[in-house]
Amino acid sequence: MTKRVYYLALTSVLVALGVIGGSLFEFTVGVAKVAPMQHLINVLSGVLLGPWWATTQAFLTSLIRNIMGTGTILAFPGSMIGAFMSGWLFRYTKRLIGAVLGELIGTGIIGAFVAYPVAALFLGTKGALWVFVPSFFLSALVGVVVAYVVLKSMWSTVIKPQMERLK
């Protein structure tokens, strides 16, 4: 299997998990639907696939969830920025904590700031910016904690050997 086929297949699996998990595990905080599963998938894809494939995964997951009516347009800026930052910081630091911080900063802070004008433009939301940051950050925090535990537990036996084979 070529590297490209591996990335396509893994991206597809992560999109499917994101769509299903995002629909099963969600709750509302303020004006946002909080889906910690998406953040877990963003960190996984950031580490396993890199920033561009992770961003593609986040876009496709958000698109499918919006088409199905289980997500909102706010998923696009939050998840895509977080996924990219997770992959980029992991690539830069070579540490899982870099991927976790990338998702927290990318989704929890930057994504929340970008979501505010998107919500005002497309949803007619008249809320304040401070409403988005806590809900996005809380969602990202729950997801990245689970992602860190999952990745850390599989790191030396599964993930690191697979990454070595792909080089």
Automatic annotation (TrEMBL):
Key word Acyltransferase present in the record? Answer: no
Q: Which UniProt keywords apply?
A: Membrane, Transmembrane, Transmembrane helix
Name assigned to this protein: ThiW like protein
UniProt KW Cytoplasm keyword: no
Q: To which species is this protein native?
A: Secundilactobacillus collinoides DSM 20515 = JCM 1123
Q: Where are the transmembrane segments?
A: 6-27, 67-90, 97-123, 129-151
| Pfam family membership, one | ThiW
